[in-house]
Amino acid sequence: MKRLIIGDIHGHWDNFKRIYDLENPDEVIILGDYFDNFHGSDESIKRCFVDITYLQKQHNIDKSGKFIMLIGNHDYHYLNWYEHYSGYRSSYASWAKIQLNELRKEKLLQYVYIDKINKTIYSHAGVSNTWLKENAKFDINDDNLEFINEMNDMTFKFTYKGGGDCYGNSWYSSPIWIRPEALKLDMYAGDNNIKWVQIVGHTHYNNPQIFKNKFQISNTQEEIDKNNPNLYIMDCMPNAYL
């Protein structure tokens, strides 16, 4: 089964559709950030989101695999008007909130996707041990990780706690905000301290970045297999197939 993982589309429908058609995947996981860029028109960004949701529904009808859409920080600030981030557009804010909430009601949009078979957590930015301990009301373990999707939206807000900076580089940052420098030192450890693999977007790189704990490794398949990496950073979608 082929699984296509894409991060941070930001209104670039043509790039995404070209990759989807080329790969013809059985499953799709989009790591969030459908909205906001600094050059596209409101209508082009809105049309991109509509087209993605239409493709999601068609894929889920035509294919055996899922088409999963996750929430990024550039989606969150339309879902919840607690705070606004860089790129926020009031011009389509009300429209975006309606669209996102409709997907959530249909269980087609969530914060994390937990692949228990392959012990992999997919999220926009990553799940840290510290954030879980600070915000979960009970002990989260390998069997109940899906509860992250039921947590109060307030727990996903941006925070400066723990010496964080304006980019979210803190162990206390949520799964839509934490940066790789913090995440790779404090990733969710799992039961018996057996770390899960995490696949994230959010932080821009020209090529996928692959880490074994805090150390970056080569992204050749041989090195990946040998080192059993714990963290993949995928925010390279616009350049991935150029």
Question: Short description, anyone?
Answer:
With 242 residues, the chain is α/β, with parallel strands linked by helices. The chain is built from seven helices and ten strands.
Structure characterization notes:
The protein has seven helices and ten strands. It is α/β, with parallel strands linked by helices. The longest helix has 21 residues, at 42-62. The model has no long low-confidence stretch (mean pLDDT 90).
Highlighted features:
single chain, globular, 242 residues, alpha/beta, six-stranded mixed beta sheet
List the helices and strands and how they pair.
Layout lengths: L2 E4 L6 H11 L3 E4 L11 H21 L4 E4 L2 H7 L13 H13 L3 E2 L1 E4 L4 E4 L5 H7 L44 H4 L13 E4 L8 E4 L2 E2 L4 H7 L3 E3 L9
Parallel strand pairs: 1-2, 2-3, 3-4, 6-7, 7-10
Antiparallel strand pairs: 5-6, 8-9, 8-10
